[in-house]
Amino acid sequence: MDRARIAAILEERKEPAFRMRQIENAIYVQKVARFSDITTLSKGLRAALENEPTLTLEPSHTAQSKDGTIKVLFKLLDGKEIEAVMIPNKEFRTICVSSQVGCAMKCGFCATGTMGFKRNLTADEIVDQVLYFERLLKSRGEGEKVTNVVFMGMGEPLQNLEAVLPAVEQMNDEQGLGLGARRISISTCGIVPGILKLADYPLQINLAVSLHAPNDEVRSKIMPVNRAYPLEKLMAACKTYLEKTNRKLFIEYVMLRGINDTPELARELGELLRPFVPLVQVNLIPFHQTFFSWKPTPRPEIERFQEAVMAEGVPCTIRHSAGVDIAAACGQLANQRLGGPSAS
């Protein structure tokens, strides 16, 4: 919901201040899909809001995987498109949201990076991705709700904290989506000023750092951001974050065959992160091969890499890949729809 626009309409009509909270309760808590169905509002106000959308986005394409993962390409009110994904399992329904249209980071393995940066999303556009899936789950009548949100979709969240943090607070608000702060995770490619800002942020959200290499030589080849924030600066920021929050730091590591998956690099990764134990966990991510020349590391080699990291005393898991058959990795569906390189 475009809260600024609705607030302007309420002000123009000289409605009392509590009307906005009534509307927010109906939209976010009760999951009402139309203003005309909010019975706590007067008929006149419902009529004034009748043609206003309750979401700042609408689905333009949906794909469902055989594993239950649902990926949606959303069209925003200005015509631009973003993606969000719901990953369900027996206990959790996790929503992977976008924070920007496109991305300026140009990580070498990421389809979104090929699109370039278009604009930041607003807090409402971020929250509405989750609200869409909340409504979808409600429509199934099975009593399921969104349990977790991860900022791991399109864009670099720490370059849009002006919208990301208000979105987090709206998700966490009991009169918003009511998600516990520890159910919300923000992932970054390593924007040091943003990490330091999160170190002082009061809500106990999770932080994941996309590392992907344990030294500057390899990481700079994969991630251009490393030239601005090399590992010395990044690790110092992570140390500050852990000292101030005492919360676990998650390290994301995509496995690229022959690039960053050697036993030597595994040992180097363990040595780099050992000082952060027990407040660190490495997640090894199988690569979703698309149009890139890089190849995914075979599963047996990923397992050997995991063992080498753990031998250094660092906890390490292998993430399950969801939605592989529907191009669920970040940016793939948007590129295909827009005729980008992943469509070839």
Structure characteristics:
ten-stranded mixed β-sheet, disordered C terminus, elongated, 344 residues, 19% strand, DNA polymerase, domain 1, 36% helix, 2 domains, alpha/beta, 12 helices, TIM Barrel
How does this structure look, described?
- With 344 residues, the chain is of the alpha/beta class.
- The chain folds into two domains: 1-54, DNA polymerase, domain 1 (Orthogonal Bundle), CATH 1.10.150.530; 55-343, TIM Barrel, CATH 3.20.20.
- The protein is built from twelve helices and twelve strands.
- The protein has helices spanning 3-12, 18-29, 43-49, 123-140, 161-172, 192-199, 216-222, 225-228, 231-245, 263-273, 299-311, 332-337, and strands spanning 57-64, 70-76, 81-88, 93-96, 100-102, 117-120, 148-151, 184-188, 206-210, 249-255, 280-286, 316-318.
- The strands form two sheets. Strands 1-2-3-4-7-8-9-10-11-12 form a ten-stranded mixed sheet, with helices on one face. A two-stranded antiparallel ribbon has the order 5-6.
- The longest helix is centred in the middle third of the chain and has 18 residues, at 123-140.
- It is elongated, with a radius of gyration of 21 Å.
- The two termini are 36 Å apart.
CATH topology of the largest domain: TIM Barrel
**Do you know the CATH architecture of the largest domain?**
Alpha-Beta Barrel
Summed up, the helix count is 12
The fraction of residues in strands falls at 15-25%
> Total domains, how many?
2
Q: For the terminal residues, how far apart are their CA atoms?
A: 36 Å
